[in-house]
Description:
Blueprint: E1 30-33, H1 39-46, E2 51-55, H2 65-74, E3 80-83, E4 85-86, H3 95-98, E5 103-105, E6 111-113, E7 117-118, E8 124-125, E9 133-134, H4 142-145, E10 148-152, H5 158-167, E11 172-175, E12 188-191, E13 201-206, H6 210-218, E14 225-228, E15 236-240
Helix pairs in contact: 1-2
Amino acid sequence: CDKNDSKDNKVIHENSDKNYLSPHPSPGGIIDAAGGAGHVSLALALRGVHSTVVDPRSTIGKLPGRDRKSLKKSKQDPFSTYRAWFGSRPKGVDSFYREGVNGISNASGGHEYNQTITTTDGSNLNDPTILPICSMCSEDNLLPNCKAIVALHPDEATGSIVEIAIENQKPFLVIPCCVFSRLFPERIKHQVEDDRSGSAGENNNIVSTYYELIDWLVAKHPAIKVTRLPFAGSNIAVWATFK
């Protein structure tokens, strides 16, 4: 599900196109949560809609060359990027993968960091676990001022995105993918009504399948709807406008 796994997602070349994407958050537009290289934000930008990709990975905003050229030729304003976690840093997350850390094994079988992270304000972090968190209280002001939140296959951030959108009545559209049942054992699926007994309620089964995850998200608020989108793979959009 990682949107940065494509062979085309090469590191931005150090040339005149390098700074075409704004490396700073820009409050007031759309938040592209866990947006990776920025393909959703690219689609929005080509339609004149400004967005900011919020993602902890070091490859954030690094579109393939042909996509950067398309955006530049369109003469539309580029999208912004903000290297941070959205809402929270999930417990148990693989920081060496998500935060782009080069880890080396030490004698005790653990890991040591051998990479310094530079944040958007130019400061250096030797410990990537203190990457900023984009929230209603964070200094970036993205979440309080955003018009909506979108997320395509946001993996571990899926639940946080929906919960934050509901809490703050922010319009959102999330297209879930991976379930991560071991990472989120607190997600308990709702028991489907049994026609034979007429009973209904919750059981102690952990959400572990794609459709159980969809049901779990939809049950969070009566305003939430689902739409199947016309592309292959995990294509069910969970969304709400709260109007």
